[in-house]
Automatic annotation (TrEMBL):
Domain Enoyl reductase (ER): 10-320
Top-level taxon of the source organism: Bacteria
A GO molecular-function annotation: oxidoreductase activity
Name used for this protein in its record: NADPH:quinone reductase
UniProt cross-references to SMART domains, sorted A to Z: PKS_ER (SM00829)
One Pfam entry name: ADH_zinc_N_2
Length: 335
């Protein structure tokens, strides 16, 4: 089978497409024929080995996982003898970022806890866009932001692959959403349900009369005082991404601000959970979320895909198409 191999840290040219042996699923694993994957910030960290602290998880001198790739969607071709949740032929999606990675390949042996049945109304490409980014948005809003019906939520960095999920999920939970993004993405953000849009190069959101129960920092470099000023009493700021300096300020000063005021500051790191994949499937099938895809690349164009993704400000998800639909997939889609 074809797979992307990474033997050292660096730029996208360290990624090589090679033929390797098809994996054999263990007792509690399923063999998935992968049709699509997607790119996330975590893929860049694994590619570059930066920040250096990430190497303590991924390998100090070289990547410990030869095949990168976290998000995937595909069809189960075989199951281990102790698998109870799935059967051969099931269409599934999932996240391998805590299971040894390996999604940039035509097949992967996946622990059954790392996947869920694919949303019936999404294509493989759309489903592959959902796991890491969708779970990040879900967990940050629900678990860190403690989002509630009628609250006011501001999302700084709302136009990216993660930000668009934040908008849709905040609306799903009944919040009023203000999105901070570039002017060129304004129309797209309106389509996803944002109630108010602020150009990040224009007005200072902290000076607006509106104050927020939850602020999500998906991107940006603002000092914490800006966010603190824009929060309501009892409000919470959740750092998801952005500059290294902003993360350092949250880690250093967030606990102090939280202790000395009625406003809380916290950082967030997504943790793959099967139950959250199942919940995203249900929300997607209800029409509550729809992945925003901006570009599709073939597996053999993986280097070009990373160069494109690394530019930033792209307005949605980048998909890696891995395997073409076979007769079984086409049969499933015949009415």
């Amino acid at each position: 089978m074809r797979a992307v191999i990474q033997t050292k840290y660096g730029l996208p040219d360290v990624l090589q497409l090679m033929d390797i042996e098809k994996p054999v699923p263990g007792n509690i694993e399923v063999l998935v024929k992968i049709h699509a994957s997607s790119l996330n910030q975590g893929n860049l960290v694994l590619l570059k080995g930066k920040p250096f602290a990430a190497r303590f998880a991924f390998g100090l001198s070289k990547p410990k996982y030869a095949v990168p790739g976290g998000d995937f969607a595909g069809r189960i071709e075989a199951i281990g003898k102790d698998v109870t949740q799935f059967k051969t032929g099931d269409e599934v999606f999932g996240d391998l970022s805590s299971s040894g990675w390996g999604a940039f390949s035509e097949y992967a042996a996946v622990p059954e806890h790392a996947l869920a049945l694919k949303p019936a109304n999404l294509s493989y490409e759309e489903a592959a866009a959902l796991p890491m980014a969708g779970v990040t948005a879900l967990q940050a809003l629900r678990d860190k932001g403690n989002i509630k019906l009628g609250q006011k939520v501001l999302i700084y960095g709302a136009s990216g692959g993660v930000g668009t999920f934040f908008i849709q999920l905040a609306k799903h939970y009944g919040a009023e959403v203000t999105a901070v993004c570039s002017q060129k993405h304004k129309h797209s953000i309106e389509q996803h349900g944002a109630d108010y849009i602020i150009d990040y190069q224009g007005a200072d959101f902290s000076l607006a009369p509106r104050h927020y129960d939850v602020i999500i920092g998906v991107n940006g470099f603002q000092p914490l005082s800006i966010y603190k000023q824009a929060l309501k009493s009892g409000g919470v700021f959740v750092h998801v991404g952005g500059s290294g300096a902003q993360l350092s300020r949250v880690l250093l000063f967030g606990p102090l601000i939280s202790k000395m005021s009625s406003k809380r500051f916290s950082s967030f790191l997504h943790r793959p959970k099967q139950e959250d994949l199942v919940l995203l499937k249900e929300i997607a099938e209800e029409g509550g979320i729809k992945p925003v895809i901006v570009r599709n690349f073939m597996l053999e164009d993986i280097q070009e895909a990373f160069h494109y993704f690394n530019k930033g400000h792209i307005g949605g998800k980048v998909i890696i198409q891995i395997s073409a639909l076979d007769e079984n997939d086409l049969h499933e889609r015949t009415p």
